[in-house]
Amino acid sequence: MEKLLHWSIANAQGDSEAVARAGQPDPKLLEQLFGGGPDEPTLMKHAMAVISNPEATLENKLTAFDNFEMLIENLDNANNIENLKLWEPLIAVLDSPESELRAFALSVTGTAVQNNEKSQNNFAKYDGSLAKVMQIAGNAQEDAQVRIKAFYTLSSLIRHNKEIYKQFYELDGLKLIAPVLNDANANEKLKLRVMALLSTIMTVADVKDAKFLSLLRDDNIISSTLSFLQPESNLYLIDRVLNFLAQLIDIGFEFSASELEQLKAGVHNIKPVEDRLNEDDYKTVQYVFK
């Protein structure tokens, strides 16, 4: 592609020496770009055919997935997943024995539905689709990279979509959060993804609803997040926690006596790194004690 770019510029400028240095580009590439090669919907169908082909090698399937993901970064192509009837074969890959394929299927889904209500709803209408992603996210035996992609997909699905969040909530989605945060063996990227999901939840949930707030406590979400207020914790995790706590404080959430004690100790603990944290959230949390 770079060679084609140099050739094109030199050709346009009429620089024969530069054209000679660049050399002639691949005729097949020229034909694909300028000669009416397959359109993008056709390329999407071809990629999914490879992904779904039991005879295709893992390497070829991963290459096809890579191509498919690049295509659906375009909003029209993402919405075409439904039109081309490709959601069902894509969702079926979530049951693949190959962790790399499961991770790619989740990544593609998360990308396709991100800030895209039409594709969010298209995905969610398939029976068991949301529950399948939640099951993968909550499976402690699952490959870490697959779980990271599952939580990414959940965040993408419920962002700005109250109806899908309602389904997530009714499937006890809040119970996915604390076990990961409390898991000493869970890596930091996974915990960051979980905190990103929690932040997304706070934007679509009825955060002033007494039942929702009660579940935050009953499902150990609040105590789990407070435990990260330690200077040795990942700074991005601390920032995520401070943002979550600041959101609670802004809506007038009443911390219990033990939570306040833990919060006070945590704020004291992270003072050595305060200049590296979000200033507004840090000050909001500090304000609780003034």
UniProtKB/TrEMBL annotation:
Residues 1-81 form the Nucleotide exchange factor Fes1 domain. Keywords: Repeat. It comes from the Eukaryota. One of its GO terms (molecular function) is adenyl-nucleotide exchange factor activity. The keyword Repeat applies. One of its GO terms (cellular component) is endoplasmic reticulum. Belongs to the FES1 family. This is Hsp70 nucleotide exchange factor FES1.
